[in-house]
Design goal:
With about 130 residues, the chain is mainly alpha-helical. It is about 80% helix and about 0% strand. α1 crosses α2, α1 crosses α3 and α2 packs antiparallel against α3. Keywords: Membrane, Transmembrane, Transmembrane helix.
Length: about 130
C-alpha cells in the first residue's frame, strides 16, 4: 500500500512540474517579463519538452538526474525571475490549456529534432577538425 501512495505522490509532483513548464511558456510570451527571465524561461521549457536530453536516459542512474534535478531546479529559478502577478495569470492559462487535454505540436517537435541533429553534426565536425587536423 505504501508503494502506491509514493507513486501517487510522484505522479502529482510530475503533473505540477508539467503545469509549471507551461506557466513558463506563457510567461515567455508576456511583455511584463524581463528579457533575461524570458531567455532563461524559454531555455528551461525547451529542455523540459525536448525529446533529447543532455544525459541520455538509458545511462543507469545518471540518465534520470537531469529529469529529477535539472528540470525542477531550472523551473524554480525561472519562476523566481518572473513577477508574481505574471505567474498567477500564466498559471490560470496553463490550467485551462491542460484541462482541455495534453496539447500536441508536431511542428515544434520536428524543429527540436532538427536543431539537435544540426547541433550534433556541428559538434562532430568541430571535433573532427580539432582531433584530426
Amino acid at each position: 500500500m505504501r508503494a502506491a501512495t509514493t507513486f501517487q505522490v510522484l505522479k502529482n509532483k510530475a503533473k505540477k512540474l508539467k503545469l509549471e513548464a507551461y506557466v513558463l511558456y506563457f510567461a515567455y510570451k508576456d511583455s511584463r517579463v524581463s528579457w533575461y527571465a524570458k531567455l532563461f524561461a524559454i531555455l528551461v521549457v525547451a529542455y523540459a519538452f525536448s525529446p533529447i536530453d543532455f544525459i541520455p536516459d538509458f545511462i543507469p542512474i545518471l540518465g534520470y538526474l537531469d529529469d529529477i534535478i535539472l528540470v525542477p531546479l531550472g523551473i524554480w529559478v525561472a519562476l523566481k525571475l518572473i513577477p508574481n502577478e505574471v505567474i498567477h495569470d500564466c498559471r490560470e492559462k496553463a490550467q485551462a490549456l491542460l484541462a482541455k487535454g495534453k496539447p500536441k505540436n508536431w511542428i515544434m517537435g520536428a524543429i527540436f529534432i532538427i536543431i539537435w541533429i544540426l547541433l550534433g553534426v556541428w559538434v562532430s565536425w568541430y571535433l573532427y577538425q580539432w582531433l584530426l587536423a
